[in-house]
Design goal:
single chain; 355 residues; alpha/beta; 39% helix; globular; three-stranded parallel sheet
């Protein structure tokens, strides 16, 4: 019996050594989405599905130009359309990011469709004032921890007329000053498009950086990153490991992914090229992205589409480029979980650390 003691001790000691627990530097969340927004029950179901595997919530919106140009007070619009949703987020202890888009969320080469339909542009002084009032209403009523004042600024600069870019720049800088004057408690940011910064959307695959964005929007204290790399890469493993942390090194401030993803279905791209996607590839991307985020000490990860989009129900006035983003959800249009939802929940289970 005495001779068995050393062996038993070795076994007990080896069992007591815990395996290292995977960690993440970033919080995780979604903007609430549903395949069909005219189905209220489905909107509620999506909320109930993702708030538990989530630390944070995102609201990204264009300015409601039609309503505000018609004279509706910005505060009334915010209270009617967002206050209840944000109360729900707060009940679930979710921190809030708000991004307000002064341009066109689906087509960065032009003004917002509704603003252009009214015969106006963000280059116009009166449109900029409406945007600034909306920003103040969103901040004062919703009290987010983070506010973004322009989205994908380098893509706008690349794609849109200079008058639109300069209008976005002036509107965002003036709004930032408004918020500071009112002593906002929110951290201020814009977002840049990683795929533009890396030259992948341009086809050069040469890193060009974000220096112009940091100069033009010098008020930022953190930086959002947008990335849809399936437009340029065939497989997540082809992405450089420093896809995010090179941007973070240039920014010298906290970074987070404000939007992005990988299609779970192969689709025909803007140039009739085949964009590669499957449930497995999408899942692989989420796992690869976690490594890239940790390398960059990123603070958050957001996806704007929790669900796929039912393209058969999209209103005719929506920009047709929405089809390129129809299969980014971690659940399909009938709310059936994909492989990627398991990958998301796996990463969510990692212990959160601050470095």
């Amino acid at each position: 019996m005495r001779s068995a003691l050393p062996l038993l001790l070795i076994i007990l000691l080896s069992c007591s050594k815990d395996e290292p627990v995977p960690t993440r530097t970033f919080l995780m969340g979604f903007q609430n989405s549903a395949p069909r927004y005219d189905d209220f029950d489905m909107v509620i179901k999506t909320l109930q599905m993702w708030v538990d595997p989530g630390d944070v919530a995102m609201i990204t919106t264009e300015v409601p130009w039609t309503e505000l140009l018609a004279g509706q007070p910005a505060a009334d619009y915010v209270n009617t359309n967002y206050k209840g949703l944000v109360d729900y987020y707060r009940q679930h202890n979710l921190r809030l990011w708000v991004y307000i888009d002064p341009e066109n969320g689906l087509n960065r080469s032009s003004d917002s469709q509704t603003l252009a339909a009214a015969g106006k542009s963000i280059a116009d002084d009166d449109a900029q004032k409406i945007y600034r009032k909306f920003v103040i209403a969103m901040d004062s009523i919703l009290k987010p921890e983070h506010i973004g004042l322009a989205l994908e600024t380098n893509l706008i600069r690349l794609s849109a007329p200079s008058a639109i870019y300069n209008g976005v720049k002036k509107a965002a800088n003036d709004a930032a000053q408004d918020l500071k004057t009112r002593n906002t408690q929110a951290s201020l940011s814009v977002s840049v498009q990683a795929d533009v910064a890396w030259g992948s959307l341009q086809g050069t695959f040469q890193y060009t950086g974000i220096a112009q964005d940091l100069s033009d929007f010098s008020f930022v204290t953190e930086l959002g990153i947008s990335s849809y790399p399936y437009f340029a890469y065939e497989d997540p493993k082809d992405l450089p490991a420093d896809y995010y942390d090179r941007i973070q090194n240039d920014a010298s401030m906290p970074v987070f992914v404000s939007e992005g993803g990988w299609t779970s279905q192969g689709i025909t791209g803007p140039n009739n090229n085949q964009l590669q996607g499957s449930e497995q590839i999408q899942s692989d991307y989420i796992l690869k992205q976690a490594d890239m985020l940790n390398r960059a000490d990123a603070t958050a990860l957001f996806s704007l589409t929790f669900t796929d989009i039912d393209l058969t129900t999209v209103p005719s006035g929506v920009d047709p480029t929405v089809k390129y983003f129809a299969y980014l959800g971690v659940v399909d249009k009938d709310l059936n979980p994909k492989q990627s939802f398991d990958a998301w929940k796996k990463i969510f289970s990692y212990r959160t650390v601050t470095r």
